[in-house]
Write a structure and sequence with these properties.
The chain has nine helices and 15 strands. It is of the alpha/beta class. The protein folds into two domains: 144 residues, Luciferase, domain 3 (Roll), CATH 2.30.38; 142 residues, Rossmann fold (3-Layer(aba) Sandwich). It has a seven-stranded mixed β-sheet, with helices on both faces. Strands 1, 11, 12, 13, 14 and 15 form a six-stranded mixed β-sheet that branches. The longest helix is centred in the first third of the chain and has 16 residues. It is globular and about 60 Å long.
């Protein structure tokens, strides 16, 4: 099935997703029980629209695996010491590297042509970050020695970026939101032509801004036409990218739809605000059908927007009842 996922395209996505569903419903004990409690015979599911999505919160309470294998790595979400964090077990590190590279290069071209600067405090200072794992691999793919991780040495980073711009080396600055905001305040500079990509990560660090407000600050500080963004999470192996205006486009192994926030089994039409469901075929060894806690809109061309987080006071119905039985 891995080979089918590697070459998946819009024309084959639904058939591959359906095959993955039947595989996971048979070989993932947690997901099999979830489907049983919903009263859905797996053999009755004949289209991806009928596939049930597992609430993302189960990554906080269960080791999610399809089949029997030993994890080589464990990704964990950020959180306070009082918070329960998500855990995503990884069967094959090279598979994740392949998926992440492919998702980026399909949108931006070969990684080796970029000088890559990773500004990921908080993530870099803890173990288990999938974002740091991905950024480390991207930096290793770069052909330019200026690339690297930066923590407090932001002045040195800005010097290296300017050296690359003068040498006409394409620049990718990948940073968490609060760190890019601080960089804009402390080191504003002309970075026109560079790709500045934010990855989220403002919560608890500074006052909350909308994505539009943050991008406006960064555009003015760095004199670029747009701020790019990466959408990923601990529970996913695939990513989506935005080149501006808040529209994300997923990698070939990922598809986004929306569901009714009060009826988790009801899907919504294009352009309607709802909770985000994600099919991530790259999650073959864990779970590919995830009901996230993000709010957004999905569009027929595959693009989607992220508008905020789900308010748990809006949750109703069978999803909470099922969770008590798993």
């Amino acid at each position: 099935m891995i080979e089918k996922i590697k070459i998946v395209n819009p024309g084959t996505f639904e058939a591959v997703a359906l095959e993955v569903f039947h595989y996971q419903a048979a070989h993932n004990p947690l997901y099999r029980r979830f489907v049983e409690l919903l009263g859905i015979p797996p053999e009755s599911v004949t289209t991806p629209a009928e596939v049930p999505f597992l609430p993302i919160r189960f990554f906080k309470t269960h080791d999610i695996q399809t089949g029997e294998w030993t994890a080589v790595h464990e990704f964990t979400s950020s959180g306070t010491t009082a918070a329960t964090t998500s855990r995503h077990l990884l069967r094959d590190a090279d598979w994740y590297r392949w998926v992440a590279r492919q998702g980026f290069e399909d949108r931006y071209g070969p990684l080796n042509r970029f000088a890559i600067f990773a500004l990921l405090p908080a993530y870099l200072e803890r173990a288990g970050s999938s974002l740091v794992f991905m950024a480390d691999d991207f930096i290793r793919q770069s052909a330019h020695q200026q690339s690297g991780f930066f923590l407090h040495n932001t002045a040195e980073m800005m010097e290296r970026i300017q050296q690359c711009r003068q040498a006409q080396i394409p620049v990718l600055l990948l940073g968490v939101s609060f760190a890019l905001w601080e960089l804009a305040e402390n080191h504003p500079a002309d970075l026109s032509g560079a790709i500045i990509m934010e990855t989220g990560g403002m919560k608890g660090r500074r006052r909350e801004l909308t994505r539009e407000e943050l991008h406006h600050i960064l555009i003015n500080a760095f004199q670029v036409d747009a701020i790019h963004a990466e959408y990923g999470m601990t529970e996913l192996l695939s990513q989506a990218y935005s080149q501006g205006k808040g529209l994300f486009y997923p990698s070939s192994t990922m598809r986004v739809s929306t569901r009714d926030i009060t009826d988790p089994l009801s899907s919504l039409g294009w352009g309607k605000t709802g909770a985000i469901n994600i099919i991530d075929l790259a999650n073959l060894d864990t779970i590919s059908f995830i009901a996230t806690d993000d709010l957004g809109k999905a569009y027929p061309d595959g693009a989607f927007e992220i508008l905020g987080r789900l308010d748990y006071s809006d949750l109703r119905g069978c999803n909470l009842l099922i969770e008590k039985n798993l």
